[in-house]
Specification:
It is built from eleven helices and twelve strands. It is α/β, with parallel strands linked by helices.
Amino acid sequence: MSHPRAEPEQVDDPTDPRVADFVGLTDGARRMRHEPGSGFFIAEGEKVIARTAAAGYPPRSLLLSPQRLGDLRPEVSALDCPVYVASYDVLQAVTGFHVHRGALASFGRLPLRTPAEVLAGARRIVVMEAVTNHTNLGAVFRSAAALGMDAVLLSPTSCDPLYRRTVRVSMGQVFSVPYAFLGSWPEGIDDVRQAGFRVLALTPDAGATDLADIRVGADDKVALLFGAEGPGLTEQVMLRSDERVRIPMAAGVDSLNVGAAAAVACWVLGRRA
């Protein structure tokens, strides 16, 4: 553990402009408007901050509790940016919640990849339609990273993978899986198919093919298509898929949470052997 590279600066006023990046972190609507347009995002917790820095995102500032100041991971203390220190009361007044991890960081965004860049060289990908729940999206990214998927593509109405909750739930794995937003929807699925991917639409429909019966080779290109929690995939999207696939349920359960369904499907199809 080591001390920050920059000399820490005390913040006692929640309206201090030096911590403007961190104001109102619980106001999701405001943050989704403000952060992408201003070119930054927030990482919470030392492990996630370290993974963000390792992914090459440029640090803008650190906001720490006094307890965290002298006990930082070397990767975090080495960040070349202003370091602000505030009491837990001030942290809560600034952010809108109790910052129990005691460490937040603002990072600049990098240019978004294009779908073509993400598809190049990929064999297993996840495609998400209108996933607006940040927790679910973070869970999908974590599963995709852990279970052998090469990339994630998002419909234009899906939420921001760099939103604080998504980054935290994914444990920073949004940085290890390349992603891009498709420019049009559902037409973007046709681009995926034209790139050589077999598109499998996940649905609880009893008439769909059992996931266990899907056979793919190690080098076959496969795209797993998931919809939002509740409504699932729209019919127009499923019509553009090559096959509808289901995860068989027991005990009268009709479906899984999209994060859990993605984990199961990625485990089955993410393996190359």
